[in-house]
Structures are given as structure tokens and as C-alpha cells.
């Protein structure tokens, strides 16, 4: 059995009035309760933050969030956990437009009545409406791009804050998708039932195939800031019918409402949709002249066996006891004697555990080992292609570094050809080989670098020693210069598309935390290109 556990935080509202003097006391009881709960549910793999980290989306507020996170991670390490951070933005994490009379802003504020605006927004990367949203989230994007605690190998999506990531542990794969539900809420008006979310966001984070991406995991989580009720009818229909349908997600985590709520909904006999709304970490609510402070958080855990998963939560809240605040179990939700929710059993998205990347020795009279990050489908029958087989075999026999390109229309058998030739050649001058498919299951260039370095260096590779993409690129180049290696990259062109400048800036801003430096120094780009195609087969 394997498991994944996480700390769910939401609605910190750093920068809120009166928080500066009130937060130290909250931090004290929060950290003390983390220590108690860690004994029951730790160690924790992830911290999932569902938005409203700040109050106004200002740069100085994000700096204060970093200070809090530094203290939190220091506390984690003292407890024996070193989790990775994942976050989505909330409506308080955007900087509201300074000119509310800007035509693009005015039209966005009339979203439901402006079908043309919606179409342009989703289809045109350079639309003025998209520019307004990216500018509103500039501070969030900059903060997230430089966040030292965030998980690795994050695949960004179409809007700031959209992402997908795969977390692997003990042979199991947990997929997490975060979607920006706050991009239309840039005024102080009531947006209940008026916000937007689109299936495009789901697909765009996951290589163009959301359902296929989900099936490549044992379990998946969805993160948004807003609960589903805040979406407009069309968006709610897309969420339920296109994104969370068919039990793709074990649970949808959200915040915004500052209270703990756990829904398990099944309509007309369909699979359950589970929604866990977290309590705010710091909130001040006003009821006339009365002020109420709300503080809390939760821990979630998924346990996986061969085909099923078990989901449970430990919800926590602050309450006054003898005039003093203390964080205790949140009994607004029914809890067991272990102070957690009754375990929910769900069917895994993929009934098969991910196996370690396959290492095979298919080559006669050769010591070469080929590692497959993505194993090609073995052809049931292969005939013809005599000329192509001869050309590829001869190219692979070349003893000098070379680039081999296989070009052709999709579905014409390029992958099968390469696999067949590699299986049947008798002699190789390579010492080792690696095969992967670009963006398959969200497999990014960052993941490729980590995978190849880990494989070629074995125990000598420590990712902490190569923290930037440039350092990893240079290391891989040096390895390729030292000994003959074979790299097979299927669908290589998908990575190159991401290096189009406008694509980088508008669509993938948080992938390029080193962004401006990379754009100004195109030599780094050429190094990336060289690594991708050096001794590679372009499929």
C-alpha cells in the first residue's frame, strides 16, 4: 500500500487590516497544532494552497507570504516533513486594474453578455482581454515563478495559476491540476454564480488531453479557489460534465468561503463528485459592529491499494477556550474517534500501479541497456519499409555524434519504425540509451533532464546540486561529450513550440522563472536545442 498526504491551506489574506498584530498569535497556535497532528497524519508530502494568499495582490504582500512560508518550512523540517508547495490564485491575489474604464476591462466585466469576448479570450493568446488578466496576475506570477518550495516539473496552462503536476511515490502516481477560477473577479462586487471556468484550461494543463492525462494516474486532485457554486451556469456545466466527470478526481479542493464544508454528491446514479472546502487560515468577518475571527486548516490523505483508494481528512479550527484561542478538531463535519472524516472508498483512475521505468536488454551481442520513460507499443505485425529500415540502421551505425531525424505525417509509423530497428540491430557502439515521449502524461523538458541525469549518473545524481535548468543542461551536455549515448525523443517538436517567445510569455509565464534572462540570452535556448537533438532520433 502507498499513500499521499497533504496540508490544505487557504485564505491567508496577508496584508489584511489588523493582521500584522494578530498573526503572531495565530502562528503560535497553528504551529503547535501542526506538531500534534503530524503525529497522527504525517509526514506530509504536499502543501496545497487554494488561493487568497494576499489581500490586494501587492508585491510587498507576497514578500510577507514568503517570510511566513520560510517559517512554516523550518517548522516542517523540525517535525520530519519536507513537503512541496502547490498553489492556485484567489481573487485577492490579483491586482485590480487601475483603469476600470478601459474598454477591455469593461467588456470583461460583462462576460456573460459578451459571447464574442469569451471566444476571443479563449482562442486568441494575444487578445487584449487576455492581456488584462495577465497584467492583473503579474505579481502572483512573479511570486510563483521564484517560489523555492514549489513542486518540480509543473506543467503550466493557459491562464496564470493553471497547472498540472505528477507526484510519484512508492510506485504510485498522484496527479494534481490547479485552475484559475478568479480571473474575472477584479472588483468588489458579488460574483456568486458569475465566475468562469473552461474545459480548455483542463486540457491545456495536461498536454491537450485531460481525460488521458487523468488515466495515467492512480488518483487525481483538483484545486480551485472558488467552490463550484460561484461559477456561472455554463462553467458549472463544463466543470461537472467535462472536467470532474467519470470520477477523474478523488476530490476537488477549494476555499474562498472561510468555512469547512465537505460534499459527496452523486446525481442520477453517476459516480460521486467530492468537494472539500477549507477553512480560512486567517479571516476577519464582520456582522454589523461585531467582528469574528476565523482560523483553521486541514490535512488530507489518500491511501492506495491495488485497485481502490481511501480518502480522509483531518479538519481543524480555532476556538476560544477560557478566553484563549486554541486549534482543535472541527466538529462542523462528522469525525471518527481518530478525529478524521469517515474514510471514503473510491476506484482508482488507473487500476495499474506505475512501475519503475522499464530497463530492457533487447540487443543481441551488446551490453547496451535501454531505459524507457514511455514504452512504445509493440507492433502486432511489421512489414515493408525496407529502404527506411536500411537507412536508419546505417545511421545508427555511425560512430561519430550525429542527429537522426525521422519525419512523416502523424500515424504513419515513425515510432514503430524506430522501435523495430533498435530491437533487431545486432551491434551498437552506445554504452546506454534512453527513450521518452515529449509531453506524454505531462512529461516536460524539465522531467526529461531529471530522468536522463538520474539514469546516466545513477547514485551520483543529486537534484539539489543542479537547481537551475541551465546547470542541468550543461551537466547533460558534458555526459554526452564523455561517452556514446543514445537518446530517442518521440514528439520532440512539442518541446520546441514552448520556446516561441510569445508562447512563453503569454501562455507559460510561470514555467520560465528565469524567463527574462533566458529570453535575453538566446545561447541558453540553443543549448536546450542541442541537448534535445544531440544523438537523438526526431520522431
Describe the structure.
This protein has 539 residues and is an alpha/beta fold. Helices cover 33% and strands 22% of the residues. Strands 1, 2, 3, 13, 14, 15 and 16 form a seven-stranded mixed sheet that branches. Strands 4-5-6-7-8-10-9 form a seven-stranded mixed sheet, covered by helices on one side. Helix 10 packs across helix 11. It starts with a strand and ends with a strand. The C terminus is likely disordered.
Total number of beta strands: 22
Terminal Cα separation, in Å? 37 Å
Work out the radius of gyration.
25 Å
Number of helices: 17
Mind describing the biggest β-sheet?
A: 7 strands, mixed
| Helical residues, percent | 25-40%
Beta-strand fraction estimate: 15-25%
> Residue ranges: pLDDT <50 for 5 or more in a row?
353-367, 499-522, 533-539
Structural class: alpha/beta
Q: For the residues shown, what is the average pLDDT? A: 83
Shape: globular
Write the layout of secondary structure elements.
Blueprint: E1 2-9, H1 19-41, E2 46-50, H2 59-79, E3 84-88, H3 103-108, H4 115-123, H5 128-136, H6 138-145, E4 155-156, E5 163-169, E6 172-178, H7 199-205, H8 210-215, E7 219-223, H9 233-243, E8 251-254, E9 261-265, E10 273-277, E11 283-287, E12 290-294, E13 296-304, E14 308-321, E15 324-329, E16 344-347, E17 358-360, E18 370-372, H10 386-396, E19 404-405, H11 414-424, E20 432-437, H12 445-457, H13 469-482, E21 485-490, H14 493-497, H15 501-507, H16 515-520, H17 522-533, E22 536-538
Parallel strand pairs: 1-2, 2-3, 6-7, 7-8, 8-10, 18-20, 19-22, 20-21, 21-22
Antiparallel strand pairs: 1-13, 4-5, 5-6, 9-10, 11-12, 13-14, 14-15, 14-16, 17-18
Amino acid at each position: 500500500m502507498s499513500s499521499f498526504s497533504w496540508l490544505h491551506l487557504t485564505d491567508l489574506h496577508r496584508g489584511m487590516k489588523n493582521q500584522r498584530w494578530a498573526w503572531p498569535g495565530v502562528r503560535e497556535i497553528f504551529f503547535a497544532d501542526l506538531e500534534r497532528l503530524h503525529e497522527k497524519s504525517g509526514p506530509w508530502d504536499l502543501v496545497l494552497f487554494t488561493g487568497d494568499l494576499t489581500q490586494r495582490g501587492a508585491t510587498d504582500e507576497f514578500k510577507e507570504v514568503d517570510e511566513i512560508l520560510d517559517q512554516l518550512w523550518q517548522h516542517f523540517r523540525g517535525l520530519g516533513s519536507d513537503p512541496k508547495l502547490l498553489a492556485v490564485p484567489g481573487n485577492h491575489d490579483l491586482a485590480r486594474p487601475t483603469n476600470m474604464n478601459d474598454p477591455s476591462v469593461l467588456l470583461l466585466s460583462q462576460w456573460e453578455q459578451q459571447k464574442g469576448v469569451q471566444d476571443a479570450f479563449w482562442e486568441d493568446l494575444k487578445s487584449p482581454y487576455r492581456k488584462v488578466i495577465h497584467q492583473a496576475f503579474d505579481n502572483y506570477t512573479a511570486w510563483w515563478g521564484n517560489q523555492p518550495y514549489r513542486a518540480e516539473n509543473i506543467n503550466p496552462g493557459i491562464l496564470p495559476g493553471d497547472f498540472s503536476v505528477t507526484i510519484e511515490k512508492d510506485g504510485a502516481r498522484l496527479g494534481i491540476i490547479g485552475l484559475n477560477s478568479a480571473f474575472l473577479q477584479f472588483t468588489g462586487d458579488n460574483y456568486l454564480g458569475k465566475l468562469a471556468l473552461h474545459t480548455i484550461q483542463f486540457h491545456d494543463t495536461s498536454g491537450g488531453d485531460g481525460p488521458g492525462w487523468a488515466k495515467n494516474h492512480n488518483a487525481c486532485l483538483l484545486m480551485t479557489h472558488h467552490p463550484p457554486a460561484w461559477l456561472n451556469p455554463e462553467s458549472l456545466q463544463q466543470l461537472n460534465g467535462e472536467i470532474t466527470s467519470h470520477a477523474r478526481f478523488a476530490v476537488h479542493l477549494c476555499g474562498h468561503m472561510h468555512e469547512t464544508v465537505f460534499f459527496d454528491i452523486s446525481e442520477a446514479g453517476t459516480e460521486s463528485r467530492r468537494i472539500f472546502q477549507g477553512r480560512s487560515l486567517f479571516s476577519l468577518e464582520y456582522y454589523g459592529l461585531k467582528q469574528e475571527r476565523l482560523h483553521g486548516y486541514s490535512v488530507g490523505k489518500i491511501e492506495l491499494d491495488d485497485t481502490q483508494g481511501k480518502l480522509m481528512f483531518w479538519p481543524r479550527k480555532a476556538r476560544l477556550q477560557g478566553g484563549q484561542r486554541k486549534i482543535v478538531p472541527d466538529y462542523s463535519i462528522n469525525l471518527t474517534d481518530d478525529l478524521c472524516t469517515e474514510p471514503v472508498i473510491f476506484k482508482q483512475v488507473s487500476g495499474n500501479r506505475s512501475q519503475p521505468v522499464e530497463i530492457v536488454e533487447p540487443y543481441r551481442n551488446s551490453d547496451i541497456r535501454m531505459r524507457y520513460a514511455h514504452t512504445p507499443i509493440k507492433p502486432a505485425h511489421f512489414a515493408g519499409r525496407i529502404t527506411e529500415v536500411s537507412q536508419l540502421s546505417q545511421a545508427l551505425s555511425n560512430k561519430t555524434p550525429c542527429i537522426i531525424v525521422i519525419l512523416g505525417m502523424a500515424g504513419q509509423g515513425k515510432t514503430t519504425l524506430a522501435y523495430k530497428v533498435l530491437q533487431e540491430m545486432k551491434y551498437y557502439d552506445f554504452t546506454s540509451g534512453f527513450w521518452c515521449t515529449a509531453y506524454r502524461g505531462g512529461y516536460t523538458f524539465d522531467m526529461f533532464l531529471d530522468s536522463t541525469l538520474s539514469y546516466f549518473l545513477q547514485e551520483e545524481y543529486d537534484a539539489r546540486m543542479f537547481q537551475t535548468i541551465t546547470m542541468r543542461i550543461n551537466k547533460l551536455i558534458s555526459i554526452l561529450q564523455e561517452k556514446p549515448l543514445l537518446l530517442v525523443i518521440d514528439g520532440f517538436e512539442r518541446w520546441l513550440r514552448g520556446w516561441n517567445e510569445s508562447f512563453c510569455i503569454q501562455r507559460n509565464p510561470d514555467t520560465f522563472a528565469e524567463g527574462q534572462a533566458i529570453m535575453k540570452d538566446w545561447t541558453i535556448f540553443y543549448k536546450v536545442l542541442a541537448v534535445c537533438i544531440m544523438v537523438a532520433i526526431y520522431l
